[in-house]
From TrEMBL:
Pfam families: Peptidase_S66 (PF02016), Peptidase_S66C (PF17676). Keywords: Carboxypeptidase, Hydrolase, Protease, Serine protease. It comes from Flavobacterium rivuli WB 3.3-2 = DSM 21788. InterPro entries: Carboxypeptidase_A_C_sf (IPR027461), Class_I_gatase-like (IPR029062), LdcA_N (IPR027478), Peptidase_S66_N (IPR040449), Peptidase_S66C (IPR040921), S66_fam (IPR003507). Belongs to the peptidase S66 family. This is Peptidase S66.
Length: 301
């Protein structure tokens, strides 16, 4: 995998919206943080445009992303907000210049599409909190963005979740993944996620249990769960039951749909739609070890 150049003080970084509409005040705190890192935010021409739910028309959002991908003076691209919309523009983008001069793309949720699409080029990306979320995030989550982008060591120790499977094992593999709904949405497309022989991370928000099950079954049918090194499950927020109870919680569903494969399944990683959303270098090799108390995630340097 290719690692984009790490950031340095005075670097210019792009700020754009490819999904849900964003108001300027929603990212004021985040811009202050970026400037405190001695970065120079460059606001896209259509970052605060509106088209109903979306941050401008498809053409406007695609134009901003294309401009930031092509501009060699921009060393990273930060996304303001998720929601929905990046899927509508992915096929309108030309990644030729980006492949020649890679840069960090920073976001999660809807931006999972870009993580998956770009992973297929062999380029690393950063799954991390959106700019809108900086004000409500833990200091550790925001600091993890800076540390990753400036090339500092990336190690997490997470308390063992009682439902995890894999005590005493050590697993090494390339990390891929993101929002489960978006991974599900890429199946059968050019952006389809390559999970073969890799460590898959998933998280999600505001889904019904039966739909969570349906997405995992669909990934299994598409061969996405069969040959993993491990499965890492982040925050699962507001996963609801239906009027007729599904009869299994999200942990049971996950273990049930992966039991035949026997690889470790680690629950409770602090990443996803929660204030403690730690950054993950997608495409980077990581080593995962577990003892009686902690699961340790060590990213290669």
């Amino acid at each position: 995998m290719t690692t984009p150049p790490y950031l340095s003080p005075a670097d210019k970084v792009g700020v754009i919206s490819t999904a849900k509409r964003t108001e300027p005040h929603e990212i004021e705190h985040a811009l202050t943080v970026l400037k405190s890192w001695r970065l120079q935010p460059v606001i896209g021409a259509n970052t605060f445009a509106t088209d109903g739910f979306l941050a401008g028309t498809d053409a406007q959002r695609a134009a901003d992303l294309q401009q930031m991908l092509d501009d060699t003076s921009i060393k990273a691209i930060f996304f303001t907000k998720g929601g929905y919309g990046t899927l509508r523009i992915i096929d309108d983008l030309d990644f030729t210049a980006f492949k020649q001069n890679p840069k960090w793309l920073v976001g999660y949720s809807d931006i999972t599409l870009l993580h998956s699409h770009i992973h297929n080029f062999g380029i690393e990306t950063l799954h991390a909190v959106m700019l809108q979320g900086y004000a409500g995030s833990t200091p550790q989550a925001v600091e993890s963005v800076r540390a990753a982008l400036f090339g500092e060591s990336h190690v997490y120790e997470v308390p063992v979740h009682e439902r995890s499977r894999g005590e005493g094992e050590e697993v090494t593999g390339t990390l891929v993944g993101g929002n489960l709904s978006m991974i599900y949405a890429t199946i059968g497309s050019e952006s389809e996620m390559d999970t073969n022989g890799k460590i898959l991370f998933i998280e999600d928000i505001d889904e019904y249990l039966y739909h969570y099950d349906r997405m995992l079954v669909s990934l299994k049918r598409a061969g996405k769960l069969a040959n993993l090194k491990a499965l890492v499950v982040g925050t699962l927020i507001d996963i609801k039951d239906s009027t007729i109870p599904f009869g299994r919680d999200a942990y049971q569903i996950t273990l049930e749909q992966t039991v035949q494969y026997g690889y470790p399944v680690y629950f409770g990683f602090p990443a996803g739609h929660a204030p403690d959303n730690r950054s993950l270098i997608m495409g980077r090799e990581i080593t995962v070890t577990q003892n009686n108390e902690f699961v340790k995630f060590t990213f290669a340097t």
